[in-house]
Amino acid sequence: MQKLYGVLGWPVAHSASPAMMNAAFAASGVDGVYLAFAVPKTHLQSALDGLWALGAGGVNITIPHKLGAYQWAAEHTDEAKLAGAVNTLRFPAEVPDSSEAMAAAGTIGHNTDVSGWWTSLQAALRKPPRRVVILGAGGAARAALAGLALYAKTAEVLVAARDERKAAATVESFQEYISVKPIAWAKREDAIAEADVIVNATPIGMWPNDEASPIDDEGCLQRGQVVQDMVYRPLATRLLQQAARRQAVRVDGLEMLVHQGAAAFEFWTGKTAPVSVMRSAAREFLGL
């Protein structure tokens, strides 16, 4: 019987994941279908319960549900525990026959953003990152912090978010792993000017708000810096356009999308992901 997979987010109509994952299923002979589900934040638990009751194989989780999905999952992988967020859920093979069984069964929460983010960034690095500024304090920022904790422990990291209390709380949960501290959102451009890696982990600049950028004065960007935007639609965000004018090295969100999706595919199916097929499908969806 064909297995159901999908991505839950709000909004989610812009997602390239259905095109990418359905191409991966077809190329690998997996009898599955992957759909986008628009789920308001208040409906996350009921949506996940319903998908599980329907016998779904698993789902990806995107904004704004990554922290809620962590709380919902019964078990967590090491990457998810470190990030404190879940972007991929795998449901048990057997559908529970009661609410009590559902509460006790072993849904596993994973975070493929961690390895997907690092793989996408690493290709642009000439040397290990020294000073990193992360914009944002949600699930995507947590994935970047977890990636640094695993792969670049010597970096000094600054986190700036519009919700400064959230930034402080996020930083606190990573202080035992890496050198990290929060800074005021108003001070972000001063910090960016002194950094060698800048990561936009906010949705600022994401379709349909293409004209927005997380920075106001592009003069804070420097030649040779690595500027990564996790947003992939549009691919050339306003932030990356600003970085181009300042001759910074740009990393768009497509490679992170592809590599986190490949890791999710393997987590669900046990098969090697057809990465080139997935990349091509995502690029076609985006009109590239």
Mean pLDDT: 94
Spatial order of the strands forming the largest sheet: 2-1-3-5-6-4
Distance between the termini: 34 Å
Please state roughly what percent of the residues sit in beta strands, choosing from under 5%, 5-15%, 15-25%, 25-35%, 35-45% or over 45%. Answer: 15-25%
For the largest beta-sheet, the strand count, sense and barrel status come to: 6 strands, mixed
* Rg, Å, rounded: 19 Å
Number of helices: 12
Tell me the helix content.
25-40%
Number of strands: 12
- Inertia-based shape: globular
Oligomer: single chain
Query: What is the succession of H and E elements?
Result: EHEHEHEHEHEHEHEHEHEEHEHH
Q: What low-confidence regions span 5 or more consecutive residues with pLDDT below 50?
A: none
Structural class estimated from helices and strands? alpha/beta
Show the helix and strand layout:
Layout: E1 3-9, H1 17-28, E2 32-38, H2 44-53, E3 58-61, H3 66-72, E4 75-76, H4 78-83, E5 88-90, H5 99-104, E6 108-110, H6 113-122, E7 131-135, H7 139-151, E8 156-160, H8 164-172, E9 179-183, H9 188-193, E10 197-200, E11 226-229, H10 238-245, E12 249-251, H11 254-269, H12 275-285
Parallel strand pairs: 1-2, 1-3, 4-6, 7-8, 7-10, 8-9, 10-11, 11-12
Antiparallel strand pairs: 3-5, 5-6
Helix pairs in contact: 1-11, 1-12, 6-7, 6-11, 11-12
Describe the 3D structure:
- By secondary structure, the protein is of the alpha/beta class.
- The chain contains 12 helices and 12 strands.
- It has helices at residues 17-28, 44-53, 66-72, 78-83, 99-104, 113-122, 139-151, 164-172, 188-193, 238-245, 254-269, 275-285, and strands at residues 3-9, 32-38, 58-61, 75-76, 88-90, 108-110, 131-135, 156-160, 179-183, 197-200, 226-229, 249-251.
- Strands 2-1-3-5-6-4 form a 6-stranded mixed sheet, sandwiched between helices.
- Helix 1 packs antiparallel against helix 12 (275-285) and helix 6 crosses helix 11.
- It is globular.
- The two termini are 34 Å apart.
- The mean pLDDT is 94.
